[in-house]
Amino acid sequence: MDYILNLHGVGMRYVDYELDRSYVQEIDAFRQENHLSWETLFFDFNYQNPFQLLEKSGFQDLEKVQFAYVINAENRLQIKHKKTTIARITTDQLLQQNTLFPMYRVQIANEKAPLTEEKVCFRILQQEVGQLAKFSFSAEKFHWELLSFTLQPFNHSFYITDIYFQNEKLISQLSDTVVQGNAVLLV
């Protein structure tokens, strides 16, 4: 039977962009001289700056962009067969904080290795809300054991970064979101 996994709520698209520290110092001098924020340097297409950081970062290249779905009590994960909802949980249930036996297969990914002194890493992100992803898979009968989730710690929260069905990574087929904001963070 064919099943659909929907993620609804708040998530983000992001790219980690590494630059040489000396180049970042040059950019920062320009930024301070012109009284600009990092977000303006990356996202303001009307402002003429010589660095073209967003274009060079790969943020507009969908193959380089990563997706992450916030783990909280408002975001929902829903399993459907045709139009019938089979299961529904909030994403914070994946953390399994109040369970004696694990109900969901979850792996916590390690944070990225620290950069060398010569490099600086920016996380360019766009926060979105709505239907974050729609995945499809086929199984005789749905069981939670068929799915596994990779969680990534970031900024004092956890995010779902990957979902697997029988050890094969699911690829989102659809999203229907509204952008809530952009940010540039030093990682």
Give the gist of this structure.
13% of the residues lie in helices and 50% in strands. It has 3 helices and 10 strands.
Folded structure, characterized:
With about 190 residues, this protein is mainly β. Helices cover about 15% and strands about 50% of the residues. The chain contains 3 helices and 10 strands, in the order βαααβββββββββ. It has helices at about 20-35, 40-45, 55; strands at about 1-20, 65-70, 75-80, 85-90, 105-110, 120-140, 145-155, 155-165, 170, 175-185. Strands 1, 2, 3, 4, 5, 6, 7, 8, 9 and 10 form a 10-stranded mixed sheet that branches. A hairpin with a 2-residue loop joins strand 8 (about 155-165) and strand 9.
Strand residues, percent:
over 45%
Mean pLDDT: 88
Helix content: 10-25%
Distance between the termini: 42 Å
**Total count of domains:** 1
Output the structural class.
mainly beta
> What is the strand tally?
10
Judging from the principal axes of the Cα atoms, what is the shape? elongated
Order of helices and strands: EHHHEEEEEEEEE
Largest sheet: 10 strands, mixed
Number of helices: 3
Estimated radius of gyration: 19 Å
Instruction: Name the poorly predicted regions.
Output: none
